[in-house]
Write a structure and sequence with these properties.
This protein has helices spanning 2-20, 29-33, 41-52, 55-68, 74-97, 102-109, 112-145, 148-152, 156-209, 214-224, 247-257, 260-267, 272-287, 290-293, 295-303, 314-322, 328-363, 369-390, 401-408, 410-425, 431-457, 465-486, 509-527. By secondary structure, it is an all-alpha fold.
Length: 529
């Protein structure tokens, strides 16, 4: 029964995605990379949420919540504020310029070299970090939760390889052969499933604690583990409260406002109004995210009495403990969809970056749209195969790999965010300033985290990496402004209006954005201890 429901839901998603993309001309760049600029608010919101939410959050954040409590909700709730900023500030400018990739703006604002460097940084992050990690963490979750070695009578390693290649091949079909619209539509359906399935886990968990009553379970949980419901992290926490006002917001703004794998959904909007509505809708649901990726960790702490040796086992073990057998197949399909979404979204964005910013720019400038799409797909196939081979090898990596990789991402996220923000807020800062900021940002952050922290000051006596990100950002901005003062552009930059889509803003974007920010602040105040 579980296998039947798993296959039924998975095939339903695939069928609807195929049906919805039949009318899209995917031989053109806009059709393949941006879904023909036809995405509406619900599709954008669903795709944004599913692209972000995967086993890294379900397993990783719940594992942190098991140890530290709800203070780790900062990774979820503060995303809502970043999405509001993106809807108000960045998206109108992106759509006005008619760009398909974020680096394309950097070419218009600075020069081709800046665009190429940025595209290479994005691709390095996807290839080295994101794709293999999503495949491995997702496969590990499925193998652990559903005991695939026993189900298929194979070893743990073999089961891991089967899941990696199953996810990889399926995700590649969506991302490479279906284009953005297929990815976005499948994400939307999976988002509904994940919302339902994700909420069932804490519901059944609270029922388990409360003897059949979820309300009583919540009362018991808050009464017996009040320390787990403090939104304010101290200096030793993974998210100290002070970092919320420094690097945390920068990380969120980079991820939701400039990360190609995310913002590509909004770039495919039919108009600015739908793009803004999609971002605001996703922001609202992001506020509810802790119910899915934080609360289960606290529930697991109570049920297992804090005795788990590996905190990342909290979520898989909770699912096994409280989910009825009849829902196991549905939940497996939902989880599979979440894993698939993160993988195929990153892969689709990699194909976009390579096709438009590298192949078209440097390999074959005279290439037609059909050729760009063709060679982009070829690059995607190679990338997917490499990721599928690398992913199982991550099993041999040291403990704490995921936290370490989050820290490593700062090498490229802050430099890219810096040149985009300065690019939009100034008119005279020249291309040389952007190049200096990218190179210097990578060097300064790398020296800080991989030389000074471990070998000079020691891990326990060093600033949180989120503070280091903020310091690096400020230094980079000041350097860019100084270069702009000393050696300004010959002609002030003016953002063009390509008229690819209507950029009339959504009438309620400001009041609804303010409401979302107020709710986030209210949640922090309510849980502050």
């Amino acid at each position: 029964m579980a296998i039947f429901s798993f296959l039924a839901f998975t095939l339903l998603v695939a069928g609807v995605a195929y049906w919805s993309t039949r009318g899209t001309n995917e031989q053109t760049s806009d059709g393949y990379f941006l879904g023909g600029r036809s995405l509406t608010a619900p599709v954008i919101a669903g795709s944004l949420l599913l692209t972000n939410l995967s086993t890294e959050q379900l397993v990783g954040l719940n594992g942190q919540a098991y140890t530290e409590g709800i203070l780790v909700m900062a990774w979820e709730t503060l995303a809502a504020i970043a999405m509001v900023v993106t809807a108000l500030f960045l998206l109108p400018r992106y759509l006005q310029g008619g760009i398909s990739t974020v680096p394309q703006f950097l070419e218009d604002r600075y020069d081709t070299t800046t665009k190429t460097i940025t595209s290479a940084l994005f691709l390095s992050g996807y290839v080295i970090v994101l794709l293999p990690i999503v495949l491995y963490s997702g496969s590990l979750a499925l193998v652990t939760m559903f005991d695939i070695p026993s189900l298929l009578d194979v070893s743990h390693t073999t089961a891991l390889w089967i899941c990696v290649w199953g996810i990889g091949i399926t995700g590649s079909i969506y991302a490479i052969f279906g284009g953005l619209k297929a990815v976005a539509v499948s994400d939307t359906i999976n988002a509904i499933g994940l919302l339902i399935g994700g909420l069932l886990i804490p519901y059944f968990g609270l029922q388990h604690i409360g003897g059949g009553s979820a309300t009583e379970g919540m009362s018991i949980l808050m009464r017996e583990a009040p320390e787990k419901f403090n939104s304010i992290g101290d200096s030793k926490a993974s998210v100290p409260f002070s970092t919320i006002f420094t690097g945390m917001m920068l990380v969120q703004l980079f991820y939701w406002g400039t990360n190609q794998a995310i913002i590509q959904r909004a770039l495919g909007a039919v108009n600015l109004k739908e793009g803004q509505k999609g971002l605001l809708l996703a922001a609202f649901f992001k506020i509810l995210g802790p119910l899915i990726v934080v609360l289960p960790g606290v529930i697991a702490f109570h049920i297992f009495k804090g005795n788990l040796e590996i905190p990342d086992q909290a979520y898989p073990k909770l699912v096994k403990e409280v989910l009825p057998i009849s829902l196991l197949g549905f939940f497996a399909a939902v989880l599979f969809g979440a894993i698939l979404s993160s993988f195929n979204s990153a892969l689709n964005s990699s194909v976009t970056l390579f096709g438009l910013d590298i192949y078209k720019e440097h390999i074959n400038p005279d290439a037609s749209d059909a050729q760009v799409v063709k060679y982009g797909k070829g690059f995607g196939i190679i990338l997917a195969i490499l990721a599928m081979f690398v992913a199982p090898m991550i099993a041999n990596a040291p403990d704490g790999l995921f936290g370490y990789l989050q820290e490593v991402n700062g090498c490229y996220s802050i430099p890219i965010l810096t040149i985009i923000i300065v690019g939009y807020l100034t008119k005279w800062v020249p291309a040389i300033a952007a190049k200096v900021a990218i190179v210097l940002g990578v060097i300064l952050y790398s020296i800080s985290q991989f030389v000074l922290k471990p070998f000079v000051f020691g891990d326990d006596n060093y600033l949180p990496f989120l503070h280091v990100m903020a310091i690096t950002f400020v230094i980079n901005v000041l350097i860019m402004l100084a270069i702009g003062k000393i050696r300004p552009r010959e002609v002030a930059f003016e953002l063009p209006y390509t008229k690819q889509v209507d950029i009339t803003p959504y009438a309620l974007v400001k009041p609804l954005g303010a409401l979302i920010c107020a709710v986030v602040i209210g949640i922090y105040v309510y849980f502050a201890q």
